[in-house]
Write a structure and sequence with these properties.
- It is a single chain.
- The chain has 40 residues and is mainly alpha-helical.
- The protein is built from one helix and no strands.
Length: 40
């Protein structure tokens, strides 16, 4: 694997992973709110 390719790919993968984590956490929070509203 070319080092320059790794230097380009790494920040992109980090950004995608961070975005995915934040989206996942937001989705879980929304689901919990909906469950609370439905249950209460």
């Amino acid at each position: 694997m070319d080092l320059r390719l790794a230097l380009v790919a790494l920040p992109i993968l980090l950004a995608l992973g961070w975005a995915g984590l934040n989206i996942g956490r937001a989705a879980v929070g929304q689901l919990q709110l909906m469950i609370k509203r439905a249950g209460g």
